[in-house]
Specification:
451 residues, mainly alpha
Length: 451
Amino acid sequence: MKIHPNEFTLEEFLLSLSRQHLEVVEHLVGCATCRRRFQGLARQRSLSKQTADVLQWSRQPAEYGPALSQSGQVLLDRERAMAKERAEAPNLFVELARHPPEQRDLLVQNSPRFHTWGVFELLIERSFEVGINNPVRAEELGLLALRLSEHLDSEYYSVQLVEDLRARAWAYIGNSYRLRSDLQRADEIFASAYGHLRRGTQDPLERAILLDLEASLRRDQRRFEQAFKLLRRAVAIFLQSDQRHRAGRSLVKMSTVYHYAGDPEGGIPILFQAIELIDPEQEPRLLLCARHNLIDYLVSSGRYLEAQRLYREARPLYRSFPDAWSQNRRKWVKGRIAHGLNQVEQAESLFLAARDGFVAEGVPYDTALVSLELAILYAEQGRIADLKRLAAEMVPIFSSLHIHREALAALAYLKQAVETERVSLALINGVAAYLRRAQYDPALRFEEPEE
């Protein structure tokens, strides 16, 4: 139909439906995923023929009821089959996970039990979930999903829908290369993902997911304006699609682009917006990241009292995540607030605790930065002996943690300045500023400040 149906036509259509079919229509109105699947069904030969039969010109009034009933029943049957596949997928995934990678490939290729949309979809979801902590595993799962997709029944599942998820799988694989700092390979893979997306359903939600992931790559490439542009488009699509939580996640990412660009204050209003959109039931850790980053950016902007108030409000959320990663960063930001409010003893204690935690985690950059926070505190108080002890500890720790050469040179320069008592608060702040910039730009050269 090339024109919009009028209200009378719509009313007659709705009155012709059974209660069961009306429930399907109501669900389709609110569910973008099922609308895409219905569009895929409509492209299939069987459903197209039914539609053609109904729409054939006749001298007698057309009887729409049987055809609508048949089409609705097809959709309901397919819904039930999909629900069954998704319910079975976790056990099949566990079965796959028990085997080494080579055997997984053989199972996926040769066993029809795994040739379902449910397993395909779940492999891609798991690829995304493990990406941050284990990018190699994310790539393995994404590639396994792509190999499985070659065995899916394209008549049954719709070629376009399969292409949509292939695009998403490639995007997650590209993201795994980004996380391993192979930005050139990530760039190539994202180009492949867009190729699959063009062959898909043209669903705007799938495009927004890809735009959001590509923005992380552009951020890491320090192509900040392009990252902002991609994220603004993604947020607009997510909001238009009533995907508020996804929009909130993209806004959190947008705030990090400001941070990478050396303007954390610019990310503050973005994070306030993000927090309003994030669903804490759906992704509580994302809410923690948003609140923590907001507190951290407020501290960086010198807004210590506001940061302290928000920290107190966030304490129950911090308690929900007792893992070392979360608690070490909590101590660090609390120490920064205390330092800003001139609560020196508390700040020192928190910085030391955070530093020891980062050493245990094996996180060189955060270890270096919190150590420099301590160095600034000691220099402010004229505690030269403590400053020398701290400087003597720094270089061996960072050498063992494989911090990059330019950053190591900056720390070695600081150590030498401390040992020869040529150190100043300005010099320490200069080294700290360099390390903060170099954290997101490893190619940045360290230049010794003028004496």
